[in-house]
């Protein structure tokens, strides 16, 4: 399909969405051409299918979790919420700087997955809400910031999934007393299968074409079995973007990412020293000048506003710098 044909379909797509009251200036889904092109590309520029996908997405955005994604995002700052440290301890998933193409990097450490441990301190419902706002922050904050930093359009991300340590764990008898000792030794994947599938579905259906490349590293030989389960969940276009590597992955990642942007745990030089480490830092152009609304941001604001007045002037000891 020629560029002029795509442009013509894009303009018709926009006009029909407006005419069907599915699209309004200022919608948080995004009103730029690139947002609309993501839906068109996901449905191979089939106008009917693209409209259905967009309509389904708008409905989901208004109704998800009973309050809609906009309200959920107002309630949970994806970079600052009370359960963030506990969740990252059991399922680390974070954005970290950009690759050589200017794409934001999303890193997920599957080897640390432990939902049984997580759900002792965080409900499954709350965890799922944090997954949703993490997905939402990509097109809402992360991609626009990456584009500003690169000085050009950046429309998708590089996803790195680390499977180091991903295998079998022992389930506590207190959690499932009816299981035999042999059956308690369940695969981490089978514990999170439903959650992983829902996450893939959300990404494909409501945030289409936002993953430019997926690199899976430290894949064990047994991963073939798991991949055969996951593969049917994914569109052919998504499968074509996946690279599966063993433990000899460092050269491949460094071809994609500068060493000072790649965490040391993945073969790079970055440690985000002084920022809480790469996992917790959220480092990237999206943090430049960002005003958060989570508990840390609120505490900082209170501290900044609390000034001890002495002789009509603020006390130097009470001022925040």
From TrEMBL:
SUPFAM superfamilies in alphabetical order: CRAL/TRIO domain (SSF52087), CRAL/TRIO N-terminal domain (SSF46938)
All residue ranges annotated as the CRAL-TRIO domain in the record: 83-274
- UniProt-recorded name of the protein: CRAL-TRIO domain-containing protein
Q: Which domain of life is it from?
A: Eukaryota
